[in-house]
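Feature request, filed as a ticket because there's no other form

It would be nice if the structure record came with a short human-readable summary line next to the tokens. Right now we just get the raw output. Example of a typical job, pasted below so the devs can see what we mean:
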Amino acid sequence: MLNVYRKKEKDSTLAQRKRSEVPVEETWDLTTVYAADDNWEDAFKKLSGKEEEILSYRGKLDESADTFYSALMMLEDVGCELGKLATYAMRASDADTADQKALGRKSKLMQLFASLQGAMAYFEPEVAKLSEAKVSQFMQEKPELKDFEHYFSEMWRIKKHQLSEKEEVLLAKASQIFSDPNETFDVLSDTDMTFRPIKDEKGQTIEMSHARFGRFMEKRDRRVRKDAFRSMYESYGQFRNTCAQTLASQIRVNSYIKDVRGFSSGREAALFENNIPETVYDSLLEAVNAKLPLLHRYVRLRKEIMNLDEIHSYDLYAPLVKDIDLKFSFEDAQELIVKALQPLGPEYIAVLEKAFSERWIDYADNANKRSGAYSSGSYKTNPFILMSWQGTLDNVFTLAHELGHSIHSWFTRDSQPYQYGDYCIFLAEIASTTNENLLTEYLLKKAENDKMKAAVINHYLDGFK
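Raw output as currently delivered:
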């Protein structure tokens, strides 16, 4: 197991390390984006003031194929640079949400983003006003524009929910305000909120955190699970009114955007961007609800196996298989995942190994790190993965899952032009869950005994909750 704790000098509580105490090999390498903070500042200055160049194409998109293409290329350059700035600033801030310099860069970035969005607000409505005949003519005159054919179709699809240019500018410049409820909750949850320490099964006092919560939920000792659960939710309970207010504010933001853009419901607005019919959403819910009796049956079985009079939330992830205690170092997980994903072929494995060797992954468990796990990046950067390693089987699956996203992103950006260098959330989980299923299959095939197989199946079933 990795040593992910440090001891406080004044007492015996095992506390999370400071970011400054984390070995570099446990962190992601942001120098692939910018060599240092000063380089980020230089790039920020270069992109600031681009509004004038962006606005120079306003009202001119229909002049000629060359002008139209030049405008698209200019926006691509701005988007690529903005993506790099965002990747560096956001990743550094997420690694240590208490880092004031990183927070300052993030704040500057959001202001620049709102300003550039305001300048670009005319662009999509102006594209949508172009007739199909005009665009077809431009594509014949400038073959490079054919790469944007699907992009143009999307502009015409969303046209009915676009506003006037002035209204689009106002919405774009308010983007930072619209993100405030989410930003407020993130700061509260990841930076300001603290949790009561608990005693583990050995009687050692442990500092609680978001990252450690999942590990404690898998402890066999019910008292430890219960204490961890209470520690976490007592803290949230103290801020229940603040949390409720941030949620209410976000709902008001969503409702406002829904209303001004002319959607009939919040659900329609949420699904529209990815062009998902509401009937598909309904079908998914129906399919899940139809299988709920199986989930309820599994929970009843869990209660029986654990010999509980009542089953609570802190009982839902405790291991059901006795006499097996699975622990994995990050290096163990790397070896397992590389072997498990071999069916995806040598090209995929080469990128997978690149992710490890080039430090795409920040797996350190340090104080003030953003909670959860994700894969992120931009068109001109490699993907980056954030997680906090606790040595559990679930961590191994989380890593495989996020690598699915990252390698999907890498191949997308390597194969597609900028305008198609991303994918919708509706498709995103295919690549990640495929990796999880391949890892499950590999572990079952290589299991040395029935207990190991049962532990893997136990984890697989818990994933449906």
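Something like this underneath would help us a lot:
DSSP finds 21 helices and seven strands in the chain.
The mean pLDDT is 94.
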